[in-house]
Design goal:
By secondary structure, this protein is of the alpha/beta class. The chain has 11 helices and 11 strands.
């Protein structure tokens, strides 16, 4: 599986997928830069009058509802419908859906009108979507992860999608295949937007692969491993320096790093 993951990373750099990101204002710049470092082309096109037309040009669509405005909501629905018509992959990041009822209403609406390829959230958000008591504090998960694998499988089967739950151990499943990724570092919780960046990378990887299970695993492993390598490169690990090095290690990631240091467990 690590060879397939390395191939996805290679394809991103060779094909430069165009990712339309309708994402939250707190981390929009981070998402754009991490996509560039990964080898993709970011387009933060969220104007209601532009989103639908632009969706016809893209390789993948990333929707993050962290700071959901009325215009973003309209733009996301228009872009998602268009992307679905054209069989373009859509990655949904249901940020804080367990804490704000309006967001959950929008997630349900989006799932009704579009074919969502990947649902990527933290463990608490995914468990909440699956109908379990996922624990969240704002945009953060405080869930202990118990029952998370089965929650991911349940959600994946319900919507015919790939589900990614990020946490101390990351979970990826399409309802049949399931893997756990053990790469990462606690420092990813000390910077704003690590989850959003992982979601953006997931969209980029989906834009070059028809196997969304493998492409999602590739994006999440790449993010975790880059964080692990960035933290390991520092004599004293500080958040600001770590953030800069995270971008550097995403940019400089090699297939050999994936093959030698990737920690993936297939269930």
């Amino acid at each position: 599986m690590l060879k397939n993951i390395a191939e996805v990373m290679k394809n991103v750099r060779e094909k430069t997928p165009l990712v339309q990101a309708i994402t939250n204002y707190v981390t929009i710049n981070d998402c754009a830069n991490i996509l560039l470092c990964f080898g993709a082309s970011p387009a933060m096109c969220e104007a209601r009058t532009e989103a639908e037309g632009f969706a016809g040009l893209i390789s993948a669509l990333y929707i993050n509802i962290g700071t959901l405005t009325d215009e973003q909501k309209e733009a996301a629905l228009l872009a998602a419908r268009k992307a679905s018509e054209l069989n373009k992959p859509i990655v949904l990041d249901p940020v804080a859906c367990g804490a704000i009822p309006r967001k959950m209403d929008f997630v349900k609406e989006l799932l009704d009108v579009a074919d969502i390829s990947v649902i990527k959230g933290n463990t608490g958000e995914i468990k909440f979507l699956a109908g379990l008591a996922g624990k969240v504090r704002g945009v953060d998960s405080i869930d202990d992860g118990q029952g998370a694998v089965e929650a991911c499988r349940t959600l994946a089967r319900r919507y015919g999608t790939v589900v990614v739950a990020t946490g101390e151990t990351d979970i990826i499943t399409d309802g049949i295949r399931t893997c756990l990724i053990h790469n990462g570092t606690p420092m990813l919780t000390m910077i704003t937007g690590a989850g959003c960046m992982a979601g953006a990378l997931t969209a980029a990887a989906a834009g070059v692969s028809d196997d969304r299970f493998i492409s999602s695993a590739a994006a999440i492993l790449d993010m975790g491993l880059a964080g692990e390598m960035a933290a390991g490169s520092m004599e004293r690990v500080l958040p600001g320096t770590f953030r800069a090095r995270l971008f550097d290690y995403i940019y400089s990631m090699k297939a050999g790093n994936i093959l030698q240091r990737g920690k993936i467990e297939c269930l």
